[in-house]
Amino acid sequence: MEMNSSVNEFILLGLTQNLLKEKVVSVIFLFLYLGTLLANFIIVMTIRYSQTLQSPMYFFLFYLSFADACFSTTTAPRLIVDSVSEKKAISFNECMTQIFAFHFFGCMEILVLVLMSFDRYVAICKPLQYTAIMSQCVCDTLVKLAWVGTCIHSSAQILLALKLPFCGPNVIDHYFCDIQPLLQLACVDAYVINLLIVFNSGTICMVSFLLLLISYVLILHSLSNCSREGRRKALSTCTSHIIVIVLFFIPCIYIYARPLTVFPVDKMVAVFYTIVTPLLNPLIYTLRNAEIKQAMRRLWCNKV
């Protein structure tokens, strides 16, 4: 993997170079990461073993929680360990692996959010055809297509990263390996590669965001024909989804849908979609969903 590079390892600067702030960062993000794992694990196990959460919405939520836990794991442990380490080194192969895993589970989260919005659109706008359209076979096929799309995206990212030659500087001004910071270190003109990244990651973020906005505009428009109770329930569900979408996609679009320019604030923006959103997803879906809370209570009581 290192044939195009004379660099064997990279140094990650992290979020801050202040020793005291680094210790604070390690403690804060350790609790955030453990909370993310616990919350998503509870949702995954609840949906897996509950007999009442068998609808397509919870089928997709299962994969969203799984993707959230894995997505957070691609960056948070490295950030926590580096915050208490003197040498924040990551090998070339580990860096490439992190890029692949980061884009793999990040893209999976995006595609699952799109599938969830499609499910809500069918449930609210076409309730009589919902069972036929969102059958188990269709849901399985959609998730498989999402896995395929994720593999294509992450493979394209890692191929672009492997083509970059590194012949000197190896300090990455970030807390994890991503292809944009690496472009700053490459000893070639990275303009074309940056355009390919924008076309790849930027297009996925923009198109998915627009699809989500369109679906929820159609959903909100169709609520005028619903009863007051149905409108209230649909609005509650859509509001939680829209919160997740805004928190996840706006930072992603800011990072990936622009020309090659790195700003100091980029690291803090990345925190939102790499660490904060994977924690907020299960909290929003759990606290705003009575069915999941009831299923959790039933499963807990049965286990006790």
TrEMBL record:
Recorded GO MF terms: G protein-coupled receptor activity; olfactory receptor activity
The UniProt record lists the keyword Cell membrane: yes
Domain G-protein coupled receptors family 1 profile, residue spans: 39-285
Keywords of this entry: Cell membrane, G-protein coupled receptor, Membrane, Olfaction, Receptor, Sensory transduction, Transducer, Transmembrane, Transmembrane helix
Entries under CDD domains matching the protein: 7tmA_OR4A-like (cd15939)
Name of one Pfam family that matches: 7tm_4
One BP annotation, GO: detection of chemical stimulus involved in sensory perception of smell
One GO CC term, this protein: plasma membrane
InterPro entries: GPCR_Rhodpsn (IPR000276), GPCR_Rhodpsn_7TM (IPR017452), Olfact_rcpt (IPR000725), Olfactory_Receptors (IPR050427)
Membrane topology note: Multi-pass membrane protein
Transmembrane segments: 24-47, 59-80, 100-122, 142-162, 191-219, 240-257, 269-287
Keyword Transmembrane helix: yes
Highest taxon of source: Eukaryota
Record's function text: Putative odorant or sperm cell receptor.
Alphabetical list of PANTHER family matching this protein: OLFACTORY RECEPTOR
UniProt name for this protein: Olfactory receptor
Record organism: Bos taurus (Bovine)
